[in-house]
């Protein structure tokens, strides 16, 4: 008995000793690095799990702390996936952290700024990091995402720096409304533009009003989440029927002070220029080039006109914070000299964010302020008129270019002023480009102000309430004065144009959030209310006329004096659908909830109800729409082996409304042109039964990660039907009205998206990551309306129309064509020897194809070797058409290489029929902006494959001290085509409106850029 008691005591003492030894702390050290870049991470939080004990990594990514063998270390860092490591008997624990965008376990910012684990999502949502937009920068940051996401199509306008871009998720859905997604910054929708001016006509004189993307500093961006479908963006309601782009900006981290400096400098040259003939000279009084053969070859005047462009994009940010307060400040500026002379762009971007915690960190307060200034001189704009490129391309071969360049104006004694000097000054579409750049200069100044704040109260672990508000103000001043003799001497005394635009938006919301775990069940819910109040106004001062002699005879006292007092009367014109002052209010209530079971089965439901002032004077200003979705993680319930990390199926269904324009239900009176202040009644019928468009969307998909997250796969099928389309049709003659509005139609988009990625770590020094995406979209006009037997003309470019017909597709192109005999040969006019061209009525035109490519793809590769990084992006589009009015005009004016080759051959042979080259090309080509020509000959296949981006860089570590690294990269964009059929860049667009993409009409050529990107972090 005594022996047994002794043994028990001994065992107890031994156990106590071992327990004491095990619980004893020891020093743990290690280094934390970035998996993608291989760089040390500064300021990573390293905590002992379940305690507040911890530290942060230093400038070299190192940490040191005391821990016991039973502890677990938790490593966390903004935009990185948290990692847990048990200590055990280890004294060194090195950690490699992965970006959120590399793993499906990331936290995704969804609609209303609600954060969700990506595994729980019931719809497709892709997150890209700040590196995707700030390594190879574009003045409009959204262009840096071209080719990087399945289902996302971005088409920049051919207007250069400060221009807009057309953004589409999964095809065009709305006939008359916007097809662009909602832009959301830090959970709050932003105002897209100050004015909605865009080029949508082949005549010219229009402009690009810009968009919000060009005002965002790419170095401020932490991540971007692409919500492609209606289900993903349903909580934002009518303004997000086309999806949403969620931008999360950088904020300071507590306990960390950081400074980041970047400078991106590129040189730009035209990527593609037309091919010109250089053997035949001037004809027709200095207009065309159908003259005699030259004694010597003429130079390429286009190459002499363009200059090497230059763009520098600089940014600095400072951030810091203590335990309860944090702040972030950044300044960015862009200066660009375009490839056309005198085209300059400057922007300044100031951004500040301050946040602090109150009441034992239960209340979080954040404030932000931002100011952006843009100045643009001589921004390019497509079209035949007021465009220097027409003179550059059409200049008669063999004439003295340098003479007209140096002497673009000469003195006119009759008017006592200098007037335009050119080979022919009587053609509106054909002027001296240097006169246009110096005496028809356009100047745009834009200012945007943003002020916002949020307060969040963590009531307890389950409940919190949050309120947010943001006010935005945009101002734009556009001056485009034309000196006397401009536009074929149309403005004999000059023309004054001085327009000012103003936009305001106030947004506010309140959200109540709840989350709790009940055993195997997890519930999270959000309910709230929001309002958006927007206002636009503009003041136009347009004046022109003949010299004043007496009241009623003449209007201008002196030529080229651009001041209101120089005009006897202001020839101000306000169009029928042009409103100098609009106000709109959108109120909403919404709710969403998710129920999860065993972290493997999730059900989502959401609902929203909007009240829109645009529906005033109708039966109801209210419209409601719900959505539901589910996701199932098979790997949570079935043992699929160690090589399957995620095996997820998802499906969702939603209905989302799309708001309508203001004043459609109660049309306003308008001023009569030249009516001396007279007003007239509207000629359209008010739409008192107006209903919002409704998009019905279904989406199913699969997400998987395999082989320890090295392989990622994503598959999505979607189908959307947008009904209750809003457009106008001709009104009955006896009504006394020209048009009436209808709700009708059904536009369907269906397709699939594929994304795949692989990460391979060959050794400690060498790694490779590759990502591929592919999308297919099929569009069909399921229904229109019986009142449109010949379809609805969406856009008309003089013999080329985008016509929507039931059974057709959005973007169908119909064109004038050569009239042919029954055997298919061209009909030749016996008297003139010219081919015969069809008319431009819908019945006479022929179908030439669809402007949209059904298949788009992108392939990104990144290689890391020690401190070297090489990356490149190849993107492609397959199918679709592009129409070149430029090529048609070059043929008609006899300056194209084709027309020269034909003259060398002595004839043009088409299907066995011979034509004189001049008779053929002056008929089938364009000789004026309003003459008929055979558009069918200038429709090309839009299929192309290009090297979109290339970057090669090296990181100089500790160059300016411990943790102060410099990364230098040689960068290139739009370097070359692997394949292209069209003589122009197929990704061309004069504006962002519906039905104008793929139209080339003397637009600014795409720029090829090379440069250097520098980044300094300390």
From TrEMBL:
It is a multi-pass membrane protein. Transmembrane segments: none annotated. Residues 1-23 form the signal peptide. Keywords: Cell outer membrane, Ion transport, Iron, Iron transport, Membrane, Signal, TonB box, Transmembrane, Transmembrane beta strand, Transport. Belongs to the TonB-dependent receptor family. Residues 425-781 form the TonB-dependent receptor-like beta-barrel domain. Pfam families: CarbopepD_reg_2 (PF13715), Plug (PF07715), TonB_dep_Rec_b-barrel (PF00593). InterPro entries: Beta-barrel_TonB (IPR000531), Beta-barrel_TonB_sf (IPR036942), CarboxyPept-like_regulatory (IPR008969), Plug_dom (IPR012910), Plug_dom_sf (IPR037066), TonB-dep_OMP_SusC/RagA (IPR023996), TonB-dep_OMP_SusC/RagA_CS (IPR023997), TonB-dep_rcpt-like (IPR039426). Residues 120-244 form the TonB-dependent receptor plug domain. The keyword Plastid does not apply. It comes from Phocaeicola faecium. It is found in: Cell outer membrane. This is SusC/RagA family TonB-linked outer membrane protein.
